[in-house]
Specification:
- It is a single chain.
- The chain has 180 residues and is an alpha+beta fold.
- The chain has 7 helices and 12 strands.
Length: 180
């Protein structure tokens, strides 16, 4: 377990800012305590500072996990956001996409969202912005990247892709062996 160096911190914060913008500060300075990001075995963990101090006392080989795994840094120096971060990203997200009930299962199987499955999209969503995907009942179920802006969505064909799939809660079942 170690702190993130400046280049890796920039990777993590750049990816998070695509989804939550300037709310990263709200993610770290919460009302229930201070939180930080730590790297352990190539994975970035979001952990409360009190727990981090206790975990620092354990030998590294005995430490399996701490806090919530937000993602991993690849060997190519890219940060891949994990679905386990959804619970913490959804309250702070800037852009949202809601899907129809018939398209929820399609998204949960790892497919993109088409215009025919779009229930609603938040206003002023730019093209290629990070979005959190919700059911029509406001339950977060994943995140992705907007393939079209809000104004382009109004004039899109029913089979045009509106949101590129990044991660969904169905990954818990599909990848339960590899998720930490």
């Amino acid at each position: 377990m170690r702190t993130l160096p400046d280049d890796e911190t920039a990777l993590v914060f750049t990816k998070l800012s695509k989804y939550i913008g300037s709310n990263i500060k709200s993610l770290l300075d919460r009302s229930d305590g201070l939180y930080c990001f730590r790297l352990h075995k190539g994975r970035v963990y979001y952990v409360k500072e009190d727990i981090m101090k206790v975990a620092a006392l354990l030998p590294r080989e005995n430490l399996v996990s701490m806090g919530v795994c937000f993602g991993k840094i690849t060997k190519g120096k890219k940060f891949l956001l994990n679905i386990t971060a959804l619970e913490f990203l959804s309250p702070y997200c800037q852009h949202k996409v809601w899907v129809k009930e018939a398209s929820e299962q399609n998204f949960m199987y790892g497919n993109h969202i088409y215009k025919s499955g779009l229930f609603r999209i938040s206003d002023n969503t730019p093209k290629y912005a990070g979005v959190v995907v919700y059911t029509h009942n406001d339950i977060p179920m994943g995140f992705g990247v907007a393939a079209k802006s809000t104004s382009e969505c109004r004039h899109a064909n029913p089979m045009d892709i509106i949101c590129f799939h990044q991660a969904d809660i169905g990954e818990y079942i599909r990848n339960e062996d590899t998720l930490v």
